[in-house]
Amino acid sequence: MKEAAIDEAAVISRVIRRIIPYIFVCYVVNYLDRFNVSFAALEMREDLGFSDTVYGLGAGMFFVGYVFFEIPSNLIMEKVGARIWIARIMITWGAVSACTMLAKTAFSFYLLRFLLGVAEAGFFPGMIVYLATWVPARERAQAFALFLTSTSLAGVFGGPISGALLKMGGLSGLRGWQWLFLMEGIPAVLLGIVTLFYLTDKPGQAAWLSPAERNWLSKKMAQEREEKERSHAMTLIQALTHARVWRLCLLYFSIIISFYGVAFWLPQIVKGFSGLSNSVVALISALPYLIASAGMVVIANHSDRTSERRWHVAIPAYGGSLGLALAAYFLKNNHPALAFSSLCLAAVGIWSTLAPFWSLPTAFLSGTAAAGGVALINSIGNVGGFVGPYIIGYVKQTTGSFTSGLMVLAATLLIAGFIALSSKE
Predict the structure, then answer these.
(1) Is residue 2 a contact partner of residue 126, using CB atoms and an 8 Å limit?
(2) Which of 3, 85, 104, 347 has its CA 20 to 30 A from that of 145?
(3) pLDDT tens digits, one per residue of 352-375
(4) Which secondary-structure segment (H or E) carries 344?
């Protein structure tokens, strides 16, 4: 009996419509819980007497726990399945994030940020590997971009939401920053429970596809996996020690230093040159993320159409570097509007590197090698999440200005562009 013709584009579209919106929402919540400390700091630092260095170190402590537990978390997900493991991650990180409201001292702040990193480890690389098991390589940069716009749109939503929560200070004897941590931690726990019922581990188990569609997609993804294994067959150990993987680690590290350096300090940079209220600063801080969201999708779509990745990482990295350098210059010369415009350019450049970047490792890694390799890249890269915020805090406390710190971030993006162009696809 002849098999019915499959509309392949329609199947991929259905997969994207089913998976991307849900994991998009999950990652928005994830991003809010990771970065709400940047808004909480508008009150928290004064209440608890934290210096710039203490805040920068505490913001970065998240990545210490995150890096050490990233690879084990992803390997466990490969064994037990995405549905169960992602649910576990979300429930525990939501609980720890909410408990940050209890921080009283620098040590307790460091500890809770460290535990948040431990709880969240594996979520992002797990999502990258999960998408790579559902979406063929040719459409992958666009799928990654649609997913990763959550990181920029979370900044759009997070600013106004966090600003509103800060205004709750005084209710039930809690400060505004305590309400912020509590109310933004609860959704992660609830979504973790929903994840147990919503996510599907593999295409062959997708009851929301027809039998013929399940069969076609399973065969398509198996064929891609076999092709990768024929040309790039790797064990887990080979993936973790491969020069190409480590080059991508260094590239991602160079990008993430500026990514988190900007994200953790943007509200305070805006506060410094504007002098506006905390709620207005939170609202204005959303604009660079909104512009970055549009840039991400445009660049990812062009990357898919041309099947090119390296230049689509390098050019945005150079653009981000230029934006940060201009922001430093305009801050130093007291041109706040131009400084803010430059920060918007920097955000577009930094965020637009992400989707083409993650298309690079998933093009040659599969199975356990992909789980371990992607986790390693994300782990080493996210050491930059510790370095970036700490550099800005240390330089700010030492010099009294953000300008030198922004120039350091600009330099790391120049390095990222160079590494991207020296890499093989």
Answers:
(1) no
(2) 85
(3) 999 899 888 888 887 788 888 888
(4) helix 336-352
